[in-house]
Amino acid sequence: MTTDDDARATTEFRDVPEADCDRALDLTYSVFHLTPGDKTRHRHAGMLRAALRVGAYDGGQLAGVAGAHRRTLSVPGGQLPCAAVDFVSVLPTHRRRGILTSMMDGLWRRCAADAYPLACLWPSESAIYGRYGFGAATELCRMEIDSSRPLALRTAPDSRPLRLIDPAGAPARLAPHYDATLARRAGRFTRDESWWRCGALDLDGASMRAGQDGFGPAYVVVLGAPGETPGGYAVYRTRGPGGSGPGTVRVAELEAESGPAAAALWSYLVSIDLTSTVEIQGRPADDPLLHLAADRDQVRVTGQEPDLWLRLLDVRAALTARSWAAPVDVVVDLRDTVLPANAGRFRLTAGPEGATWEPAADTPDLSLDVRELASCYLGGTPLRHFAHAGLATEHTPGAVRRLDAALQTEWLPFTGENH
């Protein structure tokens, strides 16, 4: 009789060659019960071939796979390479054998070799990834606007003209505005033209839900006259009234340089004929729309949930690369059972001029796990929340407050995209 220990001992963990990418996709689709169309599969195949890939092979059979996209993430004060973990799948015949843990170990080695200080993911089961050091680092709000009447606003809309532009030419027009948001909000990914076309705009129709929910293709509206840099833009889709429900505008993305610019774009979206609802798929928790609206009953938050989960693979590199809002000097006793090189007692000395993170022998001011540090890293969750929950321990009075002040950002981090 073969035991689980015997099965794990015979499992080989190694890089997945490009020749096995189709097998890896089939495995992932079977685990997540997906039946993609040809366009979606073609897109996923390209993404997997460009990713870091680790597989579990049992007697030559691919029993598990884990990948990571090579992305760049905005952090307070800059940008860092970030491995976006994806395609994580284990055959149901091979669960509870430590295969996922071994594949993640393989990914961490690949990330270290390629100098990735951060990893991130969007978990299908969030309870799993906390034990690997991931913490929820950004929040996403879902909203809905009653558009059966004009949107009442407390801020006068920007008077510049609004224009619909061809989505095929939108990446070149929208990219400068989007890139400017990277310095303002942490948690956002840089985009190349391919990512604009296939991800943000879905111009090839490869979305898993394309054509299945009654919504049409993407529209792009920009604020500003031809030839000038747009003051903002929105990407949206529409569905007319009928058997699927009321006419609806579904907003995928909206960026605005100011409150008046945002007011102009929201007013436009609410005014689209034959629709009575505006669905907003994801906005930051501090979105100005919640204050722009004169009637909060007209704008409802329908849900709030963790979005991007972050892992600090190289704590020193991550902490010394971000900016700091206030000076702080604390000794931190950090736990990291997965990546022991991060664990130990360190002195964080940081401020507007920069930061250092060096081993220390002094009595700690704080004790916490790398998971909680990841949640605080982008400025989205104050450390005091974890201290109140008993997940971080303050040994020196005021240490939590000082570190919170140093980690604070003007805008909450926000991601708003998946992969």
From TrEMBL:
The residues covered by the N-acetyltransferase domain are 11-156
Where along the chain is the active site annotated?
129 (proton donor)
Is Oxidoreductase given among the entry's keywords? no
Residues binding acetyl-CoA are 88-90, 96-101, 124-125
Family annotation (CDD domains):
NAT_SF (cd04301)
> What are this entry's molecular-function GO terms?
aminoglycoside N-acetyltransferase activity
What the entry lists under InterPro entries is as follows: Acetyltransf_17 (IPR041380), Acetyltransferase_Eis (IPR051554), Acyl_CoA_acyltransferase (IPR016181), Eis_dom (IPR025559), GNAT_dom (IPR000182), NAcTrfase_Eis (IPR022902), SCP2_sterol-bd_dom_sf (IPR036527)
Q: Name one GO biological process term.
A: aminoglycoside antibiotic catabolic process
PROSITE patterns per UniProt: GNAT (PS51186)
Query: From which domain of life does this come?
Result: Bacteria
Stored Pfam families: Acetyltransf_17, Acetyltransf_9, SCP2_2
Keywords per UniProt: Acyltransferase, Transferase
Q: Does the keyword Acyltransferase apply?
A: yes
Q: Describe its partners and assembly state.
A: Homohexamer; trimer of dimers.
Instruction: List the HAMAP family.
Output: Eis
Q: Which NCBIfam families does this UniProt record tie to the protein?
A: PRK01346.1-4
Similarity comment text for this entry: Belongs to the acetyltransferase Eis family.
Please report the name of this protein according to its UniProt entry. UPF0256 protein
Q: Which organism is it from?
A: Streptomyces angustmyceticus
